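Appendix B, example 12.
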Amino acid sequence: MSTTYTVRDSMTMLRRNLLHIRRYPSLSIMLIAQPILFLLLFVYVFGGTLGAGLPGQDGGGDRGDYLVFITPGILFMTVASVALGTAISTATDMTTGIIARFRTMNIARVSVLTGHVLGAVIRTGFAVVIVTAFAFLLGFRSDAGPLGWLGAIGLLILIAFSLTWLTVGMGLAADSVETASNTPLFLMILPFVSSSFVPTDAMPAGLRQFAEHQPFTPMIDTLRALVTGAHPDSDLWFAIGWCVLIALLGYLWSRRLFLRVPAK
């Protein structure tokens, strides 16, 4: 099948997913509400204490300083939250019989998957805008220029793309929607063992080694540098490298499962 037909079919599946998002907004609301609740919890419950311990604050940090520190991590969790929802929607398709019907039609098979991925990236964009606006309402301020924000937007899209392909594979591998809702939870847990909420230097030695070398830490550190006007240094290349690797493995895994595993 030609590339033209594949693109056409992918756009059709994208429209299908966007219609689902519009008709069933409750899942999107829940996925956006979760990172907002984390933002409120950590800023207003722990922010006074954690802000005072931030490096470079000399004991004078406050909730405003901690809000600036934590917002990039919350944006990452927003992306991960939407990706989790994609695993659920993929598993739903696999268990309701619609995939078996698609397989009888003359359409590009991969378009079913790319429709989920593109729809998730668009949903991520809306979610990130809402969470960022909420952070600004709480007092978040940035010294980044237009290039810094463009870089942050590009990185968030790349993260969304890579995590979504991974969760599409999890949705395909799950034997039920309930399993698909639980399998990707590590995407929400690992940011807690990274530089999202506290600097890794403040962690015990063993935990610090894990936090510094897990994939999400360079992504979050790069986001933090970009939105605060700092230079991301080598973290940028590590972040891009991890995203490319996760996206490639997620795509190959998802494609293999979709072509070989029968719809349930």
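Residues 63-96 form the longest helix (34 residues). The chain has a mean pLDDT of 85.
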